[in-house]
Amino acid sequence: MSDGSTSLTTDRLFISMRGAPISKNALGSTVEKYARMARVKKHVTCHLWRHSCATHLLKNKANLRHVQEILGHRSLATTERYLSLTITDLKEAHRRCHPREKDVARQS
Length: 108
Known about the structure:
The chain contains 6 helices and no strands. It is mostly helical.
């Protein structure tokens, strides 16, 4: 017995109100529309949004392999090239994770 609703299964993150995957063009138009409404002066694209989200995940200590999976990259090297981290981020990771840095912290 059907209640009239459509039951679609998808692995897409963004779906329409009917449950169907949203096309790249429709998503791009939506991103542009809301960027204009927010008075964002930069040209905003889905790729920029994707890059920013992934960068924020990493900056907030998400696992690189998880980000690789989210982005759908086959190679971890692709994910590493895709994301840019600041030198400050790299220094912080070194300070937090390098064994000799931990030894210095214990001696203080």
